[in-house]
Each structure stands twice: as structure tokens, then as C-alpha cells.
Design brief:
This protein has helices at residues 25-29, 50-57, 91-100, 123-129, 148-157, 164-248, 256-259, and strands spanning 14-17, 22-24, 45-48, 60-62, 67-69, 78-80, 88-90, 105-106, 118-119, 132-134, 145-147, 273-279, 282-287, 291-296, 308-309, 315-321, 324-329, 333-338, 343-349, 357-361, 364-369, 372-377, 383-386, 396-400, 403-408, 411-412. With 413 residues, it is α+β, with helices and mostly antiparallel strands. The strands form nine sheets. A four-stranded antiparallel β-sheet has the order 12-13-14-15, with no helix packed on it. Strands 16-17-18-19 form a four-stranded antiparallel β-sheet, with no helix packed on it.
């Protein structure tokens, strides 16, 4: 039903109220009705009911200039006028039609008092015969309306006629001021547009800065946790070695520095290193300088191939699979590299946010981002599945057998 229960008419600007029912906006704002007629809850507007408004807009109605009152001007009962507008339009299009309707009442521009009200379609014929004119100074509020013969006599006594030249100069000055005002308004609108763009850029910069700070904080927390785990591992290994030594009758303590000795330092990136992966004697590193380097881990600890360039953001995740290197980046993509030729062979537009983690199992590649884990076909690089939405950033992935583990904010799934 498309009738308002307050006014018992078709809805006009329907709004959902606090009671859950829909009424006309004007009915509620009029304060004639304080409570809902259905459940007596206090009435207050909540949100426009677009669905009902669209249904009302589809109703077919007669043009108002094609209807007449059955019982006079005070009656609310209408019928089709035999000589009125015959057009039937949708409610949503009625207003635009009536603005242009040829049956709409209008007045003669020569005289609003001496000429009768007529329909728009009759105005051109009327103007051909109309003998009435206004004073040429009517725009200055001269009230004269009459015949052309009467106009000549009127101009001899019109108080505006003697000021005609002054008034014309004043009109010229006003026109210049209006043009200048229009230019100023255009300049103001341009400045507003520029200000809005600058505000948007500042907001984007703020979002990016917040994201990077969050990334740094998360990485720092992960590093501290890993460092603590490493220390625990070292202490456990030393205790085990000392226990074995005691059983073998070897005296003395084991120095952990000999077990964990730095053999070399890899130098080459222009920013912090965010990701590492190793296969055989080759190690790959990803950095905030948006590049990937391939290193020799046995002989000279130097970059042995050309720097891999293809990302527009920090390289956050790396994984080597069957001679191919997969890299995930802040630019939301995954690049596939041929380690034999150092060439990028494919680029996947993977996520709507930075790719923070990569892992693989058999023929599948897993990628992690903000509240998202996606599964890709390693052969075709096609998206196979988007796993159910996560509750935070997915910053770590690991595969064991047929199980996928994901590390997020204070949780492992």
C-alpha cells in the first residue's frame, strides 16, 4: 500500500520513522501527529524510504492541467477535464512535464490585468492580436498598462522618461558588476575545488602514513618475538649440548658464540630489508627501495644477478618455487620472476591492499593481505579461491601438509 496512514494520501517524500513504519516527511514534521497510529511509538524521522519513493514514482497520473474539481474549488474530488491536457505520465516525471505543458495557465506579457489568463498554447495567437503594452520603464516599477495610443500620452508625463539616460547608464554599471560577481564566484568555486583536492591528498597521505607506521610497529613486534624465540632456542641448544657432554664425560661449557657466528654481510639495498627467501646457494631479498636482489650465500656474499625491478612499493614477501621467484608488495601486486633470465614473466593484481605474506603447497600459491587470503594456481596464475574474510592484517602464512596457518593480530588461525 502506497498511502500514508497519517494523511490518507499517496506518499510524498516517504520516510522510515523510529517505529519502523513509513510516513510522509511533511506529515511528521508538521507535528500534527506525535505518535505512530499503529503502535503509538513517538514519531521521528530516521531515513528516506527510497524503495517506496521509487514505487510512487512509477504510478501513472494525469497532468494537473487535465483535471478539474467535481464540486468546485474547495472539493478534493477531481475528474478528467474534457478540454484539458490529455497526457498521462509517471509520478516521477509529472513535475517536468507540467513545467512545459501547453495547457498550463499563463498571463500575457503585455498586461497581467487587462488581458485574461489563457493556456500556453493560445499565447502566440493572442500576442498577434493583443493591443496592450507596458511602459518601457516597467522594470523600474512603472505600473502603466494600456493601449499603444495611451502609451504615447503616458510617456509625456512618466517620471522615469526624464531619467532614461541615467537609468540606462546605471543598468550598464549593474551589468558590469554582475559579470564581475560571476567571475569572482567562478574563482571561488575553483579555489574550493582545489581545496577539496588538497584535503583529499592530505587525507590519503595521512592514511598511508598511518598504514606504514602500523606496519613498522607490527614488524617491530614480530622481530622482538622472533628474537626472544631465538634466544630461547639458543639457551635450549646450549643446555642440551652441555647435557650430552656431561653424559660423555666431556667437561667445560659450550660457548654459543661458536655455534652462531656471522659468516658475512650482504650490502646493496638502499632501504630496510623486509623479506628473505633461500633455495640452495641462492638467497633473494626484498627491500623498501622497491627492488629485489639475488645473492650468493656460499662464496662471496655478493649480489650475483641484476637487481629485479618491477614493483612500485615495498617488497614485503618472497617465495622461490621451482626456479621461479614470487614477490608480494605494498603496491598490491604479486610479480613472478624467472631466476634463470632475471625477467618478470607475469604480474598479478592480487589484492586491494598490500600483499604481506606468501606461501605455497603443491600447485597452489597463497597470498595474505588486509582481512584477506587468496589461493592462486601456480601454473596459470588464475585466482582459485578467496578464503573467508579474516579479522585483521594477514602478515604471515605457513603450509604444513594439508593445513594452512595464518598469522594475524594476536592470533594464529
Amino acid at each position: 500500500m502506497l498511502f500514508c496512514l497519517l494523511c490518507n494520501n499517496v506518499f510524498r517524500e516517504p520516510y522510515i520513522c523510529t517505529c519502523g513504519h513509513t510516513f510522509c516527511q511533511s506529515c511528521v514534521l508538521s507535528h500534527k501527529y506525535d505518535v505512530c497510529p499503529v503502535d503509538s511509538i513517538q514519531l521521528a524521522l530516521v531515513v528516506a524510504n527510497i524503495a517506496v519513493a521509487e514505487q510512487v514514482g512509477e504510478l501513472l497520473v494525469h497532468c494537473r492541467y487535465g483535471c478539474q474539481s467535481k464540486g468546485g474549488d474547495a472539493s478534493d474530488d477531481y475528474e478528467v477535464a474534457p478540454h484539458g491536457c490529455p497526457v498521462v505520465v509517471k509520478m516521477s516525471q509529472r513535475h517536468n512535464h507540467e513545467l512545459e505543458c501547453e495547457y498550463a495557465p499563463t498571463q500575457c506579457p503585455n498586461s497581467a490585468t487587462l488581458c485574461p489568463v489563457m493556456q500556453k498554447k493560445d499565447l502566440p495567437e493572442h500576442l498577434k492580436k493583443c493591443k496592450h503594452v507596458k511602459c518601457p520603464h516597467s522594470k523600474y516599477n512603472c505600473p502603466f498598462e494600456g493601449t499603444r495610443e495611451e502609451l504615447a500620452e503616458h510617456l509625456e508625463n512618466c517620471r522615469y522618461e526624464g531619467l532614461k539616460e541615467y537609468l540606462q547608464k546605471t543598468d550598464g554599471h549593474i551589468a558590469l558588476l554582475q559579470d564581475e560577481l560571476k567571475r569572482k564566484e567562478e574563482e571561488i568555486e575553483f579555489l574550493r575545488t582545489m581545496l577539496a583536492k588538497l584535503s583529499e591528498k592530505l587525507e590519503n597521505i595521512d592514511k598511508t602514513t598511518s598504514l606504514r607506521l602500523q606496519q613498522i610497529e607490527d614488524q617491530q613486534g614480530q622481530f622482538q618475538e622472533r628474537l626472544g624465540d631465538a634466544h630461547e632456542g639458543i639457551r635450549f641448544a646450549v643446555d642440551e649440548i652441555e647435557h650430552v657432554q656431561a653424559q660423555l664425560g666431556v667437561t667445560g661449557t659450550m660457548d654459543s658464540q661458536h655455534l652462531y657466528k656471522c659468516k658475512g654481510t650482504f650490502v646493496g639495498h638502499e632501504g630496510p630489508v623486509w623479506a628473505l627467501t633461500v633455495q640452495g646457494e641462492v638467497m633473494c631479498s626484498g627491500s623498501s627501495d622497491n627492488t629485489i636482489k639475488v645473492w650468493d650465500t656460499v662464496a662471496n656474499y655478493k649480489c650475483i644477478k641484476e637487481t629485479l625491478v618491477g614493483h612500485d612499493g615495498i617488497v614485503l614477501a618472497l617465495s622461490i618455487i621451482s626456479g621461479r621467484l614470487y614477490s608480494g608488495s605494498e603496491d598490491k601486486t604479486i610479480c613472478v620472476w624467472n631466476l634463470s633470465t632475471n625477467e618478470m614473466i607475469h604480474k598479478i593484481n592480487a589484492h586491494d591492499n598490500p600483499v604481506c605474506a606468501l606461501a605455497y603447497s603443491e600447485d597452489f600459491l597463497f597470498s595474505g593481505s588486509l582481512k584477506s587470503i587468496k589461493v592462486w594456481n601456480l601454473q596459470t596464475h588464475a585466482l582459485m579461491r578467496d578464503l573467508p574474510e579474516q579479522n585483521h592484517w594477514v602478515r604471515a602464512l605457513a603450509v604444513h601438509g594439508k593445513q594452512l596457518f595464518s598469522g594475524s593480530y594476536k592470533a594464529i588461525m
